[in-house]
Amino acid sequence: INFAQQIMSIPIDKEYLENLVDERFNDETKCVEWKSHLRYDLNQDKNNPKITAKIIKTMTAFANTDGGKILIGINEKNSTWTGIEKDGFRNGSEIDKDGWIRHVTEAIIYHSDQSLLDLISYKFVRYEKNITIAILTIERGVVDWGAELMLLPFREGTGISDTFWMRAEKSDVCLTTSVSQRRHSKQRNQPLHRGW
Predict the structure, then answer these.
(1) Cα-flanking dihedrals φ and ψ of residue 177, to 5°?
(2) Is beta strand 32-35 parallel, antiparallel or unpaired with respect to 68-72?
(3) pTM, to two decimals
(4) Cα-Cα-Cα-Cα dihedral sign, residues 21, 24, 29, 31
(5) In terms of Cα–Cα distance, which of 28, 85, 87, 81 is closest to 58?
(6) What are phi and psi of 6, to 5 degrees?
């Protein structure tokens, strides 16, 4: 990659991110969630495994609904670009993307079902120097027409019962009863209407 290509790639990436977080829509939605970091807790000024667990919960909610994107590296409270650098995954002066993804993978295996791994793609975008944003795209979970319930579980930890989540406007909603789980699964698995 030559110098001109490097210069051209910076505004394109920044413009791409700014379009994802457009001022007109300055908020989260049913299909977009913002997180400051993967594991770094701004309030405690240290890594906190509960931060990662919340992200995995949102991933299952997206997979259990219609899919979505999680932008990690933007502070949802004040809409500032924080980057993922404070998560501590470094390889010299660069982000250790493999280590970062490995952390997500291990957290998914601990907090959910391994099949969630097949529904995620990662993109790392440099917003500006020392501010890298991770974009996780979560596809809608597989629909098995013969299955009674095809929702991905979320569990807080070992020995704790699975819970099931769906995505609603701007938040994750727990499907607390087997009736609500079946109803959501049935609605979600309806074939899309084609035409009039």
Answers:
(1) -120, 160
(2) parallel
(3) 0.83
(4) negative
(5) 28
(6) -65, -45
Residue 21 tokens read as 């977080």
Chain centre to alpha carbon of residue 181: 21
The 10 Å CB-count burial string (b at 16+, else e) for 49-69 is eebbbbbbbbbbbbbbbeebb
- The string of pLDDT tens digits covering residues 82-139 is 999 999 999 888 899 999 999 999 999 999 999 999 999 999 998 888 999 999 999 9
- In whole angstroms, give the CA distance from residue 155 to residue 111: 5
Separation of first and last alpha carbons in the chain: 50
Mean pLDDT of the chain: 84
Locate 47 and state its tokens.
């890594």
The full DSSP string for 77-99 is TTTEE--SGGG--EETTEE-HHH
Tens of pLDDT, residue by residue over 81-90, are 899 999 999 9
Question: Could you tell me how many residues make up the chain?
Answer: 196
Residues in CB range of 99: below 8 A, 6 or more apart? 89, 91
pLDDT at 136: 96
pLDDT digits (tens, 9 = 90+) for 134-165: 999 999 987 665 555 578 999 998 888 899 99
